[in-house]
Amino acid sequence: MSFITLAVRDLAASRAFEEEVGRILVRARELGAHPVSEPVRREWGGCCGYFADPDGYRWEIAVNPGSIGQMVLPSRGPADG
Q: VOC domain: from which residue to which, for each copy (predicted)?
């Protein structure tokens, strides 16, 4: 059995800058994770990437460009109210 151990500060990516997403994904790979997705800029303004741990569970590392607790979504038009 193998384990990937990331520090809590590594998993708190929502508070980090976009560059941190890439660094965390690289670190996860160094510790035995399997890459699923490189960091990608999303339409809502954030950035996220994915890896799978040795047991196959997928993890998302993401950055929300807004303040912590603030949801940032694009407007879809008049129906949004």
A: 1-64
